[in-house]
Amino acid sequence: xxxxxxxxxxxxxxxxxxxxxxxxxxxxxxxxxxxxxxxxxxxxxxxxxxxxxxxxxxxxxxxxxxxxxxxxxxxxxxxxxxxxxxxxxxxxxxxxxxxxxxxxxxxxxxxxxxxx
Amino acid sequence: xxxxxxxxxxxxxxxxxxxxxxxxxxxxxxxxxxxxxxxxxxxxxxxxxxxxxxxxxxxxxxxxxxxxxxxxxxxxxxxxxxxxxxxxxxxxxxxxxxxxxxxxxxxxx
Lengths: 116, 109
Prior knowledge:
The complex is a heterodimer.
Chain A: E1 5-7, E2 10-13, E3 19-24, E4 31-37, E5 44-50, E6 53-57, E7 65-68, E8 75-79, E9 88-95, E10 106-107, E11 111-115
Parallel strand pairs in A: 2-11
Antiparallel strand pairs in A: 1-3, 3-8, 4-5, 4-9, 5-6, 7-8, 9-10, 9-11
Chain B: E1 4-5, E2 10-14, E3 19-21, E4 24-25, E5 32-38, E6 45-49, E7 60-64, E8 69-74, E9 83-90, E10 97-99, E11 103-108
Parallel strand pairs in B: 2-11
Antiparallel strand pairs in B: 1-4, 3-8, 5-6, 5-9, 7-8, 9-10, 9-11
C-alpha cells in the first residue's frame, strides 16, 4: 500500500499516560497534516508541516500536544498526560504541495485513541 | 472566523431521488471549496472541487458567493452513494483545509 500509513490503528490508554502516534506520508509529499475527529464531527485541524518545518499549530493544540517531522518524512504526534477528552480519531494527511488547484489531501486510516 | 457549516447530520433518500447536501461557509476572502467523501470502511477522499467545475460520479456543486453556499447535488441517487460527505474550505493558498461537521447520506433501495 503506497498510501498514507498510520500506526497504531487503535490505542487504549489510561488517563495520565503519554501516547505517541506515527504517520508515514506518501513518498515525496512535502506537506503533512494532523487532524482530530470526534464522533459526529468533521476533521478538526491540529497542525501541519512543510518538509521538517512546522508551519501552523491550532490554538486547540494545548501544551500537552507536540508534533515533529524531523527529517521531512514521517511524523509523530505525542500527547502527554492524556485526558478523557483526548479520545478521538487522529488523522494524518499529506499532499505533494500546496492544497488547492490541482493538489488535494491524501488521508490515512487514522489512529483511534481511547483514554480510560 | 473561518467556518464551514453543514446543517444536516443525516439525509435519507430513496434510490433514484434527487439529492442536495447543503454547505455554507463564512465569508473571509474567497475560499476555495471542496467536497470530501468517506465510504464505509474507506479513507476520506476528495470528491470534487469548485475550481474544476467538474461532475464526479454524477455529483455537481455550485458555488454561490452571494449566499456563501456550495451545495452538492445529484439528480438520481444510487445506493452506492451512501457515505459521509464533508464540505471543506481553503481560505489561504498553501494553508489548511477547514471541514464542516459532515452529512451522512443514506440511499435506500
